């Protein structure tokens, strides 16, 4: 029964991430961007070189929208998606210009991810939690920097290496490699 469930989950994940893979007939351009369109106006799919770049650094993975989608899918499979959600919320928070919106958004992020027993509580030591709680009393664009840095470090040291060994990533690399007209050493 467990094998059937795992196979079903793996197939579901593969199906949901299948849009990331290149079409067999689509040539892979190392310099392609994700905004390019093919002759039919459809977005080009990822190639082996693009997916391989995700293994260089967590920063490269997160800066690629498809890499971010695959990593988020992986974290969801491990029931730890709150880490990437918090990190993304902090990135979005830094873009807020209005002091009124900054205060409201700071409170929302704190209540959702940092407060004890919050719905998506991230794993932070109490000192960082207390510092962040003080910071949001007078919110600035940098008031979550320490907490965000801790969660990034946690993902970098823990989740990211597991992602690179995961079936999700290995399947994407394998399928992209076999669909690419080039050979890869």
Automatic annotation (TrEMBL):
It comes from the Eukaryota. Keywords: Signal transduction inhibitor. InterPro entries: RGS (IPR016137), RGS_RGS3 (IPR034951), RGS_sf (IPR036305), RGS_subdom1/3 (IPR024066), RGS_subdomain_2 (IPR044926). It holds the Pfam family RGS. The keyword Cytoplasm does not apply. One of its GO terms (biological process) is negative regulation of signal transduction. The keyword Ribosomal protein does not apply. Residues 57-173 form the RGS domain. This is Regulator of G protein signaling 4. It comes from Callorhinchus milii. The lineage of its organism: Eukaryota, Metazoa, Chordata, Craniata, Vertebrata.
